[in-house]
Every structure is written in structure tokens, then in C-alpha cells.
Write a structure and sequence with these properties.
Layout lengths: L2 H15 L5 E5 L2 E9 L5 H4 L5 E4 L8 E4 L6 E3 L4 E2 L17 E2 L18 E2 L2 E4 L6 E3 L5 E3 L2 E4 L7 E9 L6 E8 L11 E8 L7 E5 L9 E8 L5 E8 L7 E3 L1 E6 L14 H8 L9 H10 L16 H15 L19
């Protein structure tokens, strides 16, 4: 293929990627957007995920365990503006009780019969210590075997496994919720539905959600990222799962929170510049070396993150085209030129 023809094809492909939309739901000023899917990644520290906070279930268990309380052996570092209620007797409890009661200790005969013993597990339970499951590096650098929150009421059925993650004082106008799945060697996958939702205790109705269905999993961890805009204290997050399989319960490994940085900010420093292009070039963006990530960078080049609900940056069409041409020509292979890996020179903007 000639160099000129290759450049035309690459330019057309990248231009098309600029117009691929993301799924967004909106109710009043509240909105939730599915912004990113990160496939086959287990090192969250390297990705820069979870910088605002996180929760992981049954983490680094030394032996197989199941039917344990969601708070058992958890890793818990939520942001100050988000909270969970682990007391199952409270109406604002975080996790669904629709699956009923579990013993909490399968080795104790007294926990095997009603009214059950202590610890009492109600509804969603944690499971871990499974040798075939993925090993994670958490945002704080801790390395360990992953676990899962399992909801037996999701067996080919849609259920709000997470009823309420309460948002409080200091909730930012925009933030990211990342849901971690596909870590369980193709057990407990939410293949039927993964749904990020929002609701409120405030006056009026929010009831906004984004539902992903027909998902496929390969047994290596994926992270689904949702952007929440204009949520305030008194609102809350819900997560709905469906295994899509009779007899199989859906689950998830944990959640992470981040501030909502601009699309294309691959080095998480609050702006979109040449250093983010360098991250893409090195295969260090969320979808390595993809045209979609390149399009995000190009469309948002020059943007500095502002966490207000009204901030938008719309590049001039001529700038978009100039950047695309410059980028693609820079990436064209030649016999005598090697793409530098330690520096980046921006193409001239018209």
C-alpha cells in the first residue's frame, strides 16, 4: 500500500472515531454517562484508577471462603462524600437483601438452621480466596487475590445488588464510578446487565441510569467507568446486575471513585496535552493504541479540567482536521525514521 493511500485510510478511520458516541442518561440536571471500558487490566495503581477512593470485597483471602458479610476482609477507602451502610437491620443498608439469609459460617452447624447464627449474612455476600481468580494491585499498591460480591437474586434476573451508596457533603459536581468485573474465571459475570443508577432523597425525582446489556467476558478483569454529573448531597448510587444465565449469580469485585478528568487526559494531570499523546503512543491509554483513544485526545487537546457542570471545550473544525492530519502523518512508518519514545513535538495549529 502506498504511503499516500495509507494516510488517507488512517485519517478516515480516526475521523470516524471522533463521532462514535457514548451512552448517556439524563433526568433534569442529573446525568450518568458510560465513558470508558478498560479490558483485561488488573493493576489499578498503574492505571491511576481509584485515586478518590475504593471498596474491594473479600480481598487477599488466604483460603477459599464464601457466604461472608460484604464488610468481611474488605479494603475500604471511600471518599469523604460517599458512604456505605453495612448494618443489615437499617433501611438505608447498601446491599440488597432480596436473596434472603445465609449462614455466614458454613463450618458452624448452629449457623446452618434458622434463625441463623453470628455472623449473619443477609442478601448479597462476599466470596474470595479462589486460586483461579485474578490478582489485583489496588490503588494504594497492595497486591492480593481478588474477591467478589455475589447476589443470588441476579440469576437470570435484574436486581439492584447495590441499593444505596449515599452521597453527602462535598460531593463534586462530576465524578467517576468504576465497577470492576470479570475477575472470577468466568464465574459470577453480569453478562445479562450491568446498570449504573442514581436516585435521591431530595425533593423531586432523579431515577437516572445507564444500562449495558449483552456483555461478553473472557475471565480477565474489566473495568466499566461511568461519569456522574450534577449529583448532590442526599442523592445516592445504585448498581443493578443480571447474570443472564439460569442458575448463575452475578457479582462484582469492587468499585473505585475518581474525579472526572477530561477525556484524553491519559496521565491524569488535569489537562490534555502532548504528554497524553505520548502515553497513547506507548500503549498506556485505557484502550492501548486504539483509534478511539486517539480521537479522544485529539478532540480534547488543550483542555484543562474544570469540575463545574457548565465547562465545555469545543475545538474548531479546522483544528480537528489539522491535528488529525499531523498525527497520522507523524505515525506513518518509513524505512529511515524511528518514532521517538521520550519526547513529543506538537504539530503546528492553524
Amino acid at each position: 500500500m502506498s504511503t499516500k493511500r495509507f494516510a488517507r485510510l488512517a485519517l478516515a478511520f480516526s475521523t470516524l472515531a471522533c463521532f462514535i458516541g457514548v451512552q448517556t442518561a439524563q433526568a433534569g440536571t442529573h446525568s450518568i454517562t458510560h465513558t470508558q471500558t478498560t479490558l483485561d487490566q488488573t493493576d489499578f495503581q498503574a492505571l491511576g484508577f481509584g485515586q478518590a477512593g475504593y471498596y474491594f470485597a473479600q480481598f487477599a483471602a488466604s483460603s477459599p471462603v464464601t457466604e461472608r458479610a460484604p464488610q468481611d476482609n474488605m479494603r475500604f477507602a471511600l471518599p469523604s462524600w460517599a458512604s456505605m451502610q453495612f448494618d443489615i437491620t437499617q433501611s438505608d443498608r447498601t446491599f440488597s437483601g432480596d436473596a434472603g439469609y445465609f449462614s455466614g459460617d458454613v463450618g458452624d452447624p448452629l449457623d446452618e438452621v434458622a434463625p441463623f447464627g453470628n455472623p449473619l449474612v443477609f442478601g448479597v455476600y462476599s466470596k474470595g480466596g479462589q486460586p483461579a481468580w485474578d490478582t489485583f494491585t489496588l490503588p494504594n499498591g497492595e497486591l492480593g487475590l481478588s474477591g467478589s460480591l455475589v447476589d443470588e437474586h441476579t440469576q437470570n434476573n435484574s436486581n439492584n445488588s447495590v441499593n444505596r451508596i449515599q452521597l453527602g457533603t462535598g460531593t463534586p459536581s462530576s465524578f467517576l464510578l468504576r465497577i470492576v468485573v470479570d475477575n472470577t474465571n468466568q464465574e459470577h459475570d453480569p453478562a445479562g446487565r450491568l446498570r449504573a443508577r442514581g436516585d435521591t432523597d431530595n425533593v423531586g425525582s432523579v431515577n437516572v441510569d445507564v444500562s449495558l446489556t449483552g456483555l461478553t467476558f473472557n475471565g480477565t478483569t474489566d473495568v466499566y467507568t461511568f461519569r456522574y454529573d450534577n449529583f448532590v448531597a442526599g442523592d445516592f448510587i445504585k448498581i443493578q446486575l443480571n447474570s443472564g444465565v439460569v442458575g448463575e449469580s452475578a457479582g462484582f469485585a469492587g468499585i473505585m471513585f475518581d474525579m472526572a478528568l477530561e477525556p484524553g487526559d491519559f496521565d491524569f494531570d488535569g489537562d490534555v496535552d502532548g504528554f497524553d499523546f505520548l502515553k497513547w503512543q506507548r500503549g498506556e491509554s485505557p484502550n492501548p493504541l486504539s483509534a478511539s483513544d486517539l480521537a479522544l485526545w485529539e478532540a480534547n487537546y488543550g483542555t484543562v479540567a474544570s469540575f463545574s457542570a457548565t465547562s465545555t471545550v469545543v475545538p474548531e473544525p479546522s483544528t480537528c482536521i489539522t491535528l488529525l492530519v499531523g498525527i497520522m502523518l507523524a505515525l506513518l512508518p518509513t524505512r529511515s525514521r524511528v518514532m521517538p519514545q521520550t519526547s513529543f513535538e506538537m504539530p503546528t495549529l492553524q
